[in-house]
Amino acid sequence: MYLVESKGGAILCMLISLTFLGTWPAVMTLLERRGRLPQHTYLDYSITNLLAAVIIALTFGEIGKSTPDSPNFFVQLSQNNWPSILFAMAGGVVLSIGNLSTQYAWAFVGLSVVEVVTSSITVVIGTTLNYFLDDKINRAEILFPGVGCFLTAVCLGSFLHASNAADNKKKLSDYTVGAEATGVSTSKQTVTNNVGAKDLENGRCSAEKAKAGTAGFLIALENRRAIKVFGKSTLIGLAITFFAGGCFSLFTPAFNLATNDQWNTLKEGVPHLSVYTAFFYFSVSCFVLAIILNITFLYHPVLNLPRSSLKAYVRDWNGRGWAFLAGFLCGFGNGLQFMGGQAAGYAAADAVQALPLVSTFWGVLIFKEYRKSSRRTYVLLVSMLFMFIVAVGVLMGSSGHRKK
């Protein structure tokens, strides 16, 4: 099998992983904003997410001749390494729950804030655990100041969300007052300047036609999207976000235990799971749990989503290709993160949690987040991103080298 052994190769894996992991949430958010049910999207995503792990295992995991110390993928499938398999599958379970939670959090809090908060929580908890699991191969005097920067980014992200929510509330309040002042009910109000004499409340206008950042844009988006957020407490979105962050903080430590067996759970003579074998089992558990939960949500939806069925899912081809792409991006992104972590330490590999930098770029470019917001919101946005960039640079600078 092929192994990444140099620090340079590990950093390259992290950078590619960063791009992939920062892009797939934007694709999923795009589909939700176009009205596709998240249950349908996540079922499609789960298929290609597993397929990515299979492709990695059958290529990188089978390169070269198998040896007793470094068995190839198929050889390891028949070995007695169940303790490590269970750790890998536990990591897949918490990642699956976290990913499923963020799919709903994106609608309430926005792509940018969700990714920053969950990634920062992942680093604060997960990186600390990985530092000790990796026998302290990363430089603590650099690593932990980076963790502190991530924690600061969490606080700034929460303030940013509160400020942006207040801005949107004011826009909608002014819109309602304007409608009442002209003697026209809000449900029938038209905004000629923004949408060209289209009735927003009755859904005859798309968010693309409304001017970004206006009340008309927000209302048109609400009419079109799958998850309705108007009238719901913002605490729901933040609660889901922090829960997802807690789940994410555990999946790399579990994977670390699966590949390095720090707790000596394997019998003597049984080689450690390779990254590729562990990632295969990790993705299988991710897939199984996602299928079970999302099929359940088809018939018993949460957050007042419409009820669906397997038959309706199979027939829903609107955006299926994008959902498949999201699964591939996430699958290959996770695989590359683990390949880099095995070489340079999983604590340093958590630098891929810089993915909100990519997600925020897509959030601003595609979804028009923070358009026409207050100066306070813009200051918080820039401060959050600056602190995040500093944190990632410091964390990557703590990279070590795992001894064979």
Automatic annotation (TrEMBL):
One of its GO terms (molecular function) is allantoin:proton symporter activity. The chain crosses the membrane at residues 6-30, 42-61, 81-98, 105-130, 142-162, 234-258, 278-300, 321-340, 346-366, 378-398. It comes from Carya illinoinensis. This is Ureide permease 1-like. It is found in: Membrane. GO terms for cellular component: membrane. Belongs to the plant ureide permease (TC 2.A.7.19) family. Signal peptide: none annotated. Its main location: membrane. InterPro entries: UPS_plant (IPR030189), Ureide_permease (IPR009834). It is a multi-pass membrane protein. Keywords: ATP-binding, Membrane, Nucleotide-binding, Transmembrane, Transmembrane helix, Transport.
